[in-house]
Amino acid sequence: MLNPAPTAGATAPPLRNRRIRQGVRERLAPYAYVAPFFVLFLVFGLFPLLFTFYVALFDWNPIGEHHYVGLENFRQLVDDPRFWGALRNTVSIWLLSTIPQLFVALLLAHVLNHLRLRAATLFRMSVLVPYITSVAATTIVFAQLFDRDYGMLNWFLQLLGFDHVDFTASVWGSHLMIATMIMWRWTGYNTLLYLASLQAVPRELFEAAAADGANGWKQFRHITIPSLRPIIVFTVVTSTIYGLQVFTEPLLANSVGGLTCGAARQCQTLTLFLYEQGFGRFHFGYGAAIGVALFVMVVIAAALNYLLVTRIRSERP
Amino acid sequence: MKRLITTAAIVATAMLLVTGCSPGSGGGGSGDSKSFEFWSFTGINQKADVEVYKKAHPDVEIKLTEVGSTTETAQALTTALAGGKVPDLVLIQGDDLPKFMQSADNFVDLASLGADQRKGDYLDWVMKQSVTQDGKIIGIPTDVGGMAIAYRTDLFKAAGLPTDRDQVSQLWPTWDGFLETGKKYVQATGKPFLDNTSTSVFFQAVNQGTERYYDADHKLSYDKNPQVKAAFDLALKIHKAGITSKITSWSTGWTAGMGKGDFAVVSAPSWMLNAIHTNAPNTAGKWDVAAIPGGSGNWGGSYLAIPKRAKNPKAAWAYIAEMQSPSGQLAHFLQQGALPTTPSVYSDPQLVAKTDPFFSNAPIGKIYTQSVLGIKPFYIGPEDATVGSEMLNTLVSVEQGKVAPDDAWNTALTNVKNALRG
Question: Which of B371, B353, B357 is nearest to B148 (CA)?
Fold first, then answer.
């Protein structure tokens, strides 16, 4: 306003307009940058999710007719012993795999962080090998190890003077087998996560503790675990979600069980039951209802995790 | 510059959206009327047929995909029919066919392409299964699974049993005779006689009846039909006699055991010969084939069908017409061993003279055609596969010691009921 030239007034409106336009564009730009993810999520995430809720209300033959049945699918689901069996199997396999897996990973990370190992990088990277191996390959190898007649495990048992165990046929045997596969695959991955955040912990802390006379176990309990709390929370949440959706292992573990993972559905998980109903028997509506039930369970599990974790966090600083 | 990036991001997003929303836009046929796409399952060697056809018609392009097992192929077909790219020609296993027959609108009525003229070429009861109530022809049968018993001559000899196939057949005109032979074998050798009862006994015996899981009015009757109960009880009886190795068919232990001689006898529908061949190649010449106890029966067999949305149904039909004619099926049998569905070639000297060196030169053409000629056809319905697999699974559980034999029938009925409800 120091030099109010008459020409300036004439050019001011277009300049302001351009500024406004540029302002709008700058405000919109970030949305455009994040749009690819959200558009993909909309198409492949949100839409199928909502559509599943819709299909669950129908008797839906994918290549035939659709009939609206309301909540009938859910009523049948509650009455269906196969559903409760699958839930039991899922929870049991999840517990059997997650708890030991996270403990082993913690210990491994602690050890890898402390021991003066030659070729430390080699050891650190090799724990990740199971993770990058194809699940199908791992499963087939494990299924052969656990085989009744010609499996290596039974060969060992026989050497020790025991009878052969038909792992895949029994509930506990098959769960143990699948839990072992999951542990084999995920322990290294979790170890690396723990190790990465352990390396952010100042070494002086451990040295000071050692100077004060804390042994390895005390250091582990009072330094390693507290400093890893956020990442432990993360791994518990992710492995819960993964655990509720275990699919490939039970699908391939029982070479003849097909979609039921054994004659008595002894290791059929919820996702496998969903797949059997939806894509094996083509009861899309019933399969969708199982999907909705699974969704509710994941939400509940996530909420419980959240509550538990916030409590742990607030207990000790 | 910034504007450029923004524009690019928006364009990229729009493109993702467009491509994301148009399923089945990829690929696409060439539009050439001589080429077609064919889905088959593994282990049945349709490739050989395709090669023969291509040789005779060098201008025809066939894209053959072996999707997976019979069930996997049916699943892939369902997904494709529900909204994806369909093949021009597809092979459907007999047990999966009823589900597709329920939604026959998804397929070309082959009568419109000339199949009604050839209906009479095929075994009447096989053809009937692929014709709808209002006379549409959905599939053309490619083979049937006549039944027999495969046994190890070397192990029989060691047990002091006859090895000649006619004498062996005479040991077991009935399943009771079969059981007695088994007991003798176990007594002499201390080793299991049979692989299992679930597949090798129940699935054979239940297919020898005049009705299976449906009655003549096409109503489910698996829980009332005495023939089903009898087949089930027979399996339990043989299980209790302790003459089997209790190993489930198709498991890794089963294929390994077959090569190692862990059991001397396997039930062998005609397509099983191929499986024995591939699973136990080191046992060549040690097997032979005898008649099945309890008379004729059928297990298996497949159909060729053309989906309605096929790009080139005419070329696919030309293939069916040539390869599934009586002479085409005969040629396929001589090369591959799958049993023809066209009775006119059953007395053909080439078929009668066909022997298999792997099975001690057994006249497999003669043995298997005899087992399907006297057949009593029964209705196969949409839930047959479900009922059958639940019954089979219960018997497997019995063999694994998880279900007491005395509770087995009730457990099976409960399992079937649960499965039919969902």
Answer: B371
